[in-house]
Amino acid sequence: MRLKQASALAALTVAAVISVTPSLATAGNPDLCASNKVCIYDDNGYSALLDVARDPGQGIRNVNAGDNDRMDSWENRTSTKSAWYYNADGKGSCVNMNARSEDDNINVFDSDELTSWRTNRGC
């Protein structure tokens, strides 16, 4: 009987640890931003994907003219830190997009400022 109780207690302990371990995936919008991608969005709340969903490890990229200065939310579903910049070619103010993180409503000072971004490192 003691063996059954010990086994049951061990199973409950493992279940408790698994249930409180945070997920490495972000909530964001998995319909627009697949796992292991970095995405930027026109609107708050991860809607209206801008530019393209990018893989980790890519250098500076300017967004196209129609997407310039429009970003209001982002998600980084990778294990690599990424960054975005106010100006073209990685110039101007830089804002980090930490690994496995997201921002569904960037602050008013950064809103609609993104012009270029990278997925191979932070600022």
Uncertain runs: 6-25
CATH class category:
Mainly Beta
Instruction: Please list the strands of the largest sheet in the order they lie side by side.
Output: 2-1-4-7
| Count of helical stretches | 1
Inertia-based shape: globular
What class would the helix/strand composition place it in?
A: alpha+beta
In the CATH hierarchy, what is the superfamily? Crystallins
- The CATH topology is Gamma-B Crystallin, domain 1
Signal peptide: 1-27
Pfam families: Inhibitor_I36 (PF03995)
Keywords: Signal
Protein name: Peptidase inhibitor family I36
Summarize the structure.
By secondary structure, this protein is of the alpha+beta class. Helices cover 15% and strands 28% of the residues. The strands form 2 sheets. The chain has a 4-stranded antiparallel beta sheet, with no helix packed on it. Strands 3-8-5-6 form a 4-stranded antiparallel beta sheet, with no helix packed on it.
